[in-house]
Amino acid sequence: DRNENQNDRNENQNDRNENQNERNENQNERNESQNERNEGQNERNEGQNDRNENQNERNEGQNDRNENQNDRNESQNDRNESQNDRNENQNDRNESQNDRNENQNDRNEGQNDRNEGQNDRNERKTIRLGFSGDVGRPEMPILRDPIPLPNLDALIIESTYGNRFHPANDHVQEETLSVINKVIKRGGKIIIPAFAVGRTQLLVYELHELFDQKKLPVFPIFVDSPLAVNVTEVYRLHPECFDRETYNEFLNNHEDPFGFSRLTYTRDVNESKKLNTFKGPCMIISASGMAEGGRILHHLANNIEDANNLILFAGYAAKETLARKIMDGAESINIFGDPYTVRAEIKKMDYFSAHADQPGLLKYIDASKPATLNNIFIVHGEPEESLPLQEKIKGKGYKNVHYPKTGEEFEI
Length: 412
What we know:
alpha/beta
């Protein structure tokens, strides 16, 4: 029984072993199938890997070609940039050349204009036109004698004193001293309306000479005009314009021709006002010469009604000016709108005038001959001065001597 049981157990075990073997075989078959599938998958993977490798090789080849192309593109870009640089440099050179060409064209046009102008001037006759300005007087102190403009075709000349003759200078100092002494003796003041430029300096110079000669009485002299003070300083700065006599008499001796101990220059308005109440004899030289403005009006208002005083005119005054009215003998005048009776002595000394007289003007014209001086225009003069001068000039053989009216035109 035990053997049969053992045999049964062995048979059961064998059955189980066979079943196990069958399961193992089935498992093996499945494993083989799986292996086959794995091998197939491996083969497919290997094929895919081969394809991937081929693709990678193709990609690497493409990358190599791309890199080569990039290298070629970079090289081309470098060449393009170099070409662009060369083009820009060439453009700069072209622009510079264009600028030079334009400048040259401008110079050529300018030269052409100058050539045309020169041609026009060559075609036309050159006209020498002279403008006299104020013609000065020869042999007067301080400034050198006037030099006429020579060889003129046309001349514009002033005629302030075209019909007057200045007195000789021989007795000027004696007359000046006589006038001064007369007024000082009666305790009066001498009021001189004088132009700030020229006239004031001449008066001061003559007074300085009298002072140096110890002929001038002891009394104060005032130049009351800021402009005259400034102009006198300009005179001092330019001694190269002085004549030889002034230079030798004053500058070589290191003297100021426009300053001496009895002379005071007044700038400040308060100092000027003090002169209105100055007591005792004195001389006041003040601008303007025609008494139409400036500090001279205050001095006239304060002194013209005193018979002890002298109003001394040292030059020209135009018609309708206050100075001219007083010169012409007006008995009553208006200053600042107020009436004043003229009681002071009135005197005129033409010696101190800066304008040339008729002989001086004719001598100035003589520098150009009648054969070449084809037109003379007389200006800056009243008819009673200009018209007689016109006749005198014509009498010297000059033609086309004009006394123009305002707005009249002439072709020369």
